[in-house]
Amino acid sequence: MHDSTPTRSGGPSVSPPESSGRPAPASGSARAADVVMSYIALTKPRVIELLLVAAIPAMLQADRGQVHLGLVLLTLVGGWLGAASANTLNMVVDADIDKVMKRTERRPLARHAVTPRAALVFGLVLGASSMLWLGLLAQSWLAAAFILATICFYVFVYTMILKRRTAQNVVWGGAAGCMPVLVSWAVITDHLPEGQPHNWWQAIVLFLIIFFWTPPHTWALAMRYKEDYKAAGVPMLPVVMSAEGVTRRITLYTWATVLCTFALIPAAGWIYAVGAVGFGVWFIVMAHRLEAGVRRGVEVKPLKLFILSNNYLAAVFVALSIDAVLGLETLSGAFSLF
């Protein structure tokens, strides 16, 4: 066959350029933007948002009626750096299973947007920066020690040991997500006047609220992505247990969460008390509905409980924050007058 492309005055024919089948290379600015977004994605921003929601009420409750704005901002930045470090190092370790799970296949390491070595260095730098920030700027080396313990526990204990070996992974591994409360409490109490009680028992209650909240929150999500976890070889509870058994445990942990919020009522005012009871009843009812639906064999949407659990924790902590900022008389103090 002859080329039918017209030629000029009998000259040689010119064929149109052949397509390589590959997309045109991105511009330098587009590549730079993609790299920046990839590094941001390594830190799991949505997860960090939740951690910061837990940190703020702890700082306000630690010194009721006072807002130490400078310390709050310093702690939020330091806590963000620490959480970003833990999440980045978690992605480095989990890069192999992220590639086979649909929910995580677009993560930076899974799609080779960032090299494992670069991510590792990035995570370590974030962790060191977090400790120095809290120790030198927030002036709380206790908070810095808590951050180091959190990163080590999340990476070495949860990610490398628990996650791939036991269905109780999120129960014990979830302790890492409770640590922002202790970090925040340490920063504020390290700056309290001498003689003012530190009330660490309240920090422990806040820790336990998040500890018991984590399993129903995570298991509801795992029910939705059960096949993903199964394909990756991660023994999340919905993978190794029937849906009826999982929802039963979700209900039990939901009750434990709500009861823990009640333990803090004596140290707070009426706003928190109303919020803890009202939102708690809402959370419990929805957990029971999920369990009842599974038992009846009807189609359920566990992702709805996952989203609701986020809203529940945020609502309870917002109520506590408002209560603490206003410096309302605590219920224990009010009843002591009678």
TrEMBL record:
It catalyses: heme b + (2E,6E)-farnesyl diphosphate + H2O = Fe(II)-heme o + diphosphate. The keyword Nuclease does not apply. Pathway: Porphyrin-containing compound metabolism; heme O biosynthesis; heme O from protoheme: step 1/1. The chain crosses the membrane at residues 69-93, 114-135, 141-162, 169-188, 200-222, 229-246, 252-285, 305-328. One of its GO terms (biological process) is heme O biosynthetic process. It is a multi-pass membrane protein. Keywords: Cell membrane, Heme biosynthesis, Membrane, Transferase, Transmembrane, Transmembrane helix. GO terms for molecular function: protoheme IX farnesyltransferase activity. Its EC number is 2.5.1.141. It is found in: Cell membrane. The keyword Chaperone does not apply. Residues 9-28 have a biased composition (Low complexity). Residues 1-28 are annotated as: Disordered. CDD domains: PT_UbiA_Cox10 (cd13957). One of its GO terms (cellular component) is plasma membrane. Its main location: membrane. Converts heme B (protoheme IX) to heme O by substitution of the vinyl group on carbon 2 of heme B porphyrin ring with a hydroxyethyl farnesyl side group. Belongs to the UbiA prenyltransferase family. Protoheme IX farnesyltransferase subfamily. Carbon 2 of the heme B porphyrin ring is defined according to the Fischer nomenclature. This is Protoheme IX farnesyltransferase.
